[in-house]
Structure formats: structure tokens, C-alpha cells
């Protein structure tokens, strides 16, 4: 039977074969997931690079980042450390994520991220708990250019075991044990309880559910792209099933410059068609408002 290291390598090999990126960069935190990914990439895609993001949120973070970069160089990757400033709305987790992704975004090629099957399960549970719609419950995509996630079908335990096989010593982020973070409680309390109550296999089942929803969502998105009617005509839109209509509306709103849309936003705009009672406009992110007048929808920027 193949061991954990072979499992990681096989996942990376399949990803590289399927997508054949022109240039590969690995995002490395120093934890087991990203180190196992870096080791497999160094073996399978010689000449690849690694980027370590130092968020500067913990004492000694510069040392941790340089140690991770040094390990990547020893594995055969070109490695650099990029320090970021974490600030902005949404709490420390969201601010750190924004800063990290901005620092990692490449000029070309793909950036490999070490998200595992367990991370996918946590993402699905977060989406379910927040009622944020099918796109959220569908979880992370294995390939969402420029981001690649080869390990989404690999359990977190396998990356730690792979590092042990290679003699690598991963860094253990103390934030990963802090119950102040929602994901930590999901990981340490909720998922173990679900595994106990439902007799194991929950993380795998949640990951499969996410994959099924992505497939369904992609099919509906393709139908929305090919919608032959007028995306602003209430009469044309009213002929569509709600799930498809909301996707048509989403494409129209994004094309009009609305920067981001939650399921709640889309449902309120959809009500201008499917539950029309003469209601007023719907306020949207980025200072936009969607309205209905004379049987047509329109979206406009609000003058400040």
C-alpha cells in the first residue's frame, strides 16, 4: 500500500499533468501541509520557486519565515520571504488572508497552496453555518487560476506523516490551537464530534459534497453564460428557474462593476423579478444600487 508521501506526490503529479503550468510557485508557511507540498513539487517540477509570507503577527515570525525558506532551498526550490502589513476590515483572519494572497499573486504561472481535504471540510461547514449559499458550500476549487490546490483530496494527517518520512520538522502555528478562531474550534471540537456521532468519514463526505456542488454550479453557470434573453428584462428573467436566474443576475451585476456579491445580495436583487411588489432599490457592495423600473432592471453607482 502506498504511504503518505506517495499519496502527496501522486496528488501533485496529477495536478501538474492535468494543468501543465508554465511556472510553479509554492506558498510555504513552514507547516506540514505546505512543506509536504514543497517537497513533492521540488521533486516533480525542478526549477520551481517558493514564497514564504511573513505576516509579522507573532514574535519571532521573521525567524520562522527564514527557516521555512531555508528548508525550501535545501529541497531544491528557489525561495524568498515576503513581509506584509496586515490591516483592514473583517478581523485579523480576513486581513491576513487578503495580505497573503496579494503577496503571493504571481506575474505568471500558478501558485500552489497546501489546502487539504480537512481544510475543505472546514470551509464547507463554515459555509453551511453562515448560510452563504451554494458557492460557499462548494468549497475551494482544485484549480482557480492563478491558485492551485493539489492536496484537496489528501487528509491533513498524510502531510504530517509525509514530512516525518522525509525528516522535515514542520513549524506548528500557535494560532492553530487558539479557540478564539472559528476554524480552530471547527477543527478541534466540531469535526471530531461529527466524526464520533456519524461514525467516521465526515471530512471525506463533506469534501465529496463540495465537489458535487461545484459540478452542478459549473453546469448552471455555463447555462447562465449562454442565456439568450435580455439580462435586464424582468419578463425574460421571470421565465427562468430561480437558481439559473440568480446566476444570470450575478453575471450582469459583476459586468456592471459590482465588486462582490453574497447569496443574500443576489436573492434581494432576484426578488425584483421573482417577488416583485413595487419595492425600492437593493443596495450592493461598492456603492451600487439595483432597481426595477418599467419592467427592466438597472444598476447604478450611488453618488456620495
TrEMBL record:
Enzyme class, UniProt record, top EC level: ligase
Ranges for domain tRNA(Ile)-lysidine synthase substrate-binding: 234-297
Subcellular location(s) per record: Cytoplasm
E.C. no: 6.3.4.19
Record text about domains: The N-terminal region contains the highly conserved SGGXDS motif, predicted to be a P-loop motif involved in ATP binding.
UniProt-listed NCBIfam families: lysidine_TilS_N
Protein name: tRNA(Ile)-lysidine synthase
Organism: Saccharothrix algeriensis
Amino acid at each position: 500500500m502506498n504511504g503518505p508521501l506517495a499519496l502527496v506526490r501522486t496528488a501533485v503529479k496529477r495536478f501538474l499533468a492535468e494543468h501543465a503550468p508554465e511556472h510553479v510557485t509554492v506558498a510555504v508557511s513552514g507547516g506540514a501541509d505546505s512543506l509536504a507540498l514543497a517537497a513533492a513539487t521540488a521533486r516533480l517540477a525542478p526549477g520551481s520557486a517558493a514564497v514564504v509570507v511573513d505576516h509579522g503577527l507573532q514574535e519571532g515570525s521573521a525567524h520562522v519565515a527564514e527557516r521555512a525558506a531555508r528548508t525550501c532551498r535545501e529541497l531544491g526550490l528557489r525561495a524568498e520571504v515576503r513581509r506584509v502589513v496586515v490591516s483592514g476590515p473583517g478581523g485579523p483572519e480576513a486581513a491576513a488572508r487578503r495580505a497573503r494572497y496579494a503577496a503571493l499573486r504571481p506575474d505568471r504561472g500558478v501558485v500552489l497552496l497546501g489546502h487539504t481535504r480537512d481544510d475543505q471540510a472546514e470551509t464547507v461547514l463554515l459555509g453551511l453555518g453562515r448560510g452563504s449559499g451554494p458557492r460557499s458550500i462548494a468549497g475551494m476549487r482544485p484549480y482557480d487560476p492563478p491558485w492551485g490546490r493539489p492536496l484537496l483530496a489528501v487528509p491533513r494527517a498524510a502531510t504530517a506523516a509525509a514530512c516525518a518520512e522525509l525528516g522535515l520538522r514542520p513549524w506548528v502555528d500557535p494560532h492553530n490551537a487558539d479557540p478564539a478562531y472559528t476554524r480552530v474550534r471547527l477543527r478541534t471540537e466540531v469535526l471530531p464530534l461529527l466524526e464520533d456521532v456519524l461514525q467516521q468519514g465526515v471530512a471525506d463526505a463533506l469534501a465529496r459534497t463540495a465537489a458535487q456542488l461545484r459540478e452542478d454550479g459549473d453546469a448552471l453557470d455555463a447555462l447562465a453564460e449562454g442565456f439568450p434573453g435580455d439580462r435586464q428584462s424582468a419578463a425574460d428573467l421571470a421565465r427562468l428557474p430561480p437558481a439559473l436566474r440568480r446566476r444570470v443576475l450575478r453575471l450582469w451585476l459583476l459586468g456592471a462593476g459590482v465588486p462582490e456579491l453574497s447569496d443574500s445580495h443576489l436573492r434581494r436583487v432576484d426578488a425584483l423579478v421573482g417577488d416583485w411588489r413595487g419595492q425600492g432599490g437593493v443596495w450592493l457592495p461598492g456603492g451600487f444600487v439595483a432597481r426595477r423600473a418599467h419592467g427592466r432592471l438597472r444598476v447604478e453607482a450611488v453618488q456620495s
